[in-house]
Amino acid sequence: xxxxxAHDALLSxxxxxxxxxxxxxxxxxxxGVDLDVRPGECLGVVGESGSGKTVTFLSxxxxxxxxxxxxxxTIVFDGRDLRRLPPEALRAIRGRDIAMTMQDALxxxxxxxxxxxxxxxxxxxxxxxxxxxxxxxxVQLLEQVGVPDPARRxxxxxxxxxxxxxxxxxxxxxxxxxxxxxxxDEPTTALDVTIQAQVLDLIADMRQRLGMSVVLITHDLGIxxxxxxxxxxxxxxxxxxSGPTRQVIGAPAHPYTAGLLASMPRLNxxxxxxxxxxxxxxxxxxxxxxxxxxxxxxxxxxxxLQPVPMRDIVRAERAFGARAVRCVLAGAAP
Amino acid sequence: xxVAAPLLRARNLVKHFDLRHGLARLVQPQHGxxxxxxxxxELEIRRGETLGLIGESGSGKSTLGRLxxxxxxxxxxxxxxxxxxxxxxxxAELVRLRRRMQxxxxxxxxxxxxxxxxxxxxxxxxxxxxxxxxxxxxxxVVDMLERVGLSAAHLHRYPHQFSGGQRQxxxxxxxLVLRPDFVVCDEPVSALDVSIQAQIIALLNELKRDFGLxxxxxxxxxxxxxxxxxxxxxxxxxxxxxxxxASRLIEAPAHPYTQALFAAVPRIDAGGERPPRLQGDMxxxxxxxxxxxxxxxxxHAGERCRRVEPAPIEVAAGHTAACHLHGDGV
Lengths: 334, 330
Description:
The complex is a heterodimer. By secondary structure, chain A is of the alpha/beta class. Chain A is 30% helix and 23% strand. In chain A, strand 4 (69-77) and strand 5 form a beta hairpin. The longest helix of chain A has 18 residues, at 193-210. Chain A starts with 10 loop residues before the first strand and ends in a 9-residue tail after the last strand. In chain B, helix 4 crosses helix 5 and helix 5 packs parallel to helix 6 (194-211). Chain B is globular and about 65 Å long.
């Protein structure tokens, strides 16, 4: 991947590093993250707890909680570096051009305000509508995201909705200004599988209707396989592999990606052995000096003790088809 | 195939929660005040098998798991464990039987006492049931810790010093230290990351083989259950709607709810036609629909489904589904 922001990307991150001071020293929750989101695509960002996937996108919106801070990198959205914008300019973009939905809708929505008031607030903040007309628009939005009986639901409080409807209401608020990029952080983790399918269908449908790009942050490779054009795999704060979903899942180039795939129980392979990845993710305050996966890697060798850069393994005319991996074995025979 | 007596058999099991009692009275119910969590359930678990119990939130699967070992008292029905009627046991007799029935909980953070060391947590069962002196308890605790991938070095640590996966190993050691016959695993891997989840699944399989255990494995994750279970039971709104051998249930689910559930699972190796999505949410257990409880969301629902509750029908050997499609029609 080029060190420069991709010119054909809607969002292009280069070297994004976000740190949190802790008692045990500074923790780099996102460490030199490079990634691109193309117009109209659905990008999956996969990783386990602590991989840095959420922090990366909270950084994009400058929502990292103090004392955490963005230490380095560029965040180019639609040709402008968001880190160089004054706060009011960023505030105008947040919620209007880039919207984010959070994993837990019950805590993300304000319990003291009705669902309608919270959707209307987005519209009012961006000068799209006020008062009565904002509430009318909120009813339309709830209807669009498949909330039954929207005229009544607009007046209820978040706790009065089921988990699936709450997630839909939060998506309605996120879509209020027809953003160009929707960041959906684990939108279905708290939901049952039949409701999960409904919510993912809704996001896919809205993406098509609005022509927006979607970043789907998830720990579920099955969701990525079904829903995402491209995927970025993160581990311990770094991107370790990226590329078109079919290629990455069909022939993972990083041992961590391969390990994740082998650890997943699958419906159609009853009793087939799942192979767990040994060990656990490293303590973020005491990361291995070289490859961060090295202590758990079944294919580790001496070179892995040195830091490993991302390497392109497939260069494509359009960056869309490119594949990159952070592994010394890249390109070597498996 | 020899048919041995089941290790556990539940009949006409009922558990209702009345919202007018306790803290729950503070919520204002919209319909009725009785949650029909488990409503006339039959269940059979054979010695040495893993029975997977699946269903969505609120289907009653955790309640059923607790009733099976009498952590909760049933309102009606019968639970026979190895021939003994659990519900009629005197407290002292129940305590004695408890060492043969254990449970592993979902949340490795909430289910371990934060003020106790690993030695206390894992050894508590031994102290209660054997009144054994500390030194011999310690040896057996260490033994068990080693079986679950921990060691004597962890004895004096507290739960907060462990990762989620390690805590679940502590919970497993606690359940198995008394060498029970039967273990209820209530969503034991749901709170864990994929790579750690696979470690715990492998461990549970290994321990089952080594100790000759019987599991009731409760999970909302169909892929996990598909991987572990010999047979699967599917719950919906307090009822078991389908039971059968795992491989058969996955290849040829007979109940429309089971079909929809499996169809909704995201698959890595996707392909082929999928049945249409299930619409809407699960109705409230305060006010379950009349007739078949699934009829409000069922693509095949007909007149009979709205009126008559379907009884389980055997669709193949050992495979039953409670659906009119397999009986007199909808």
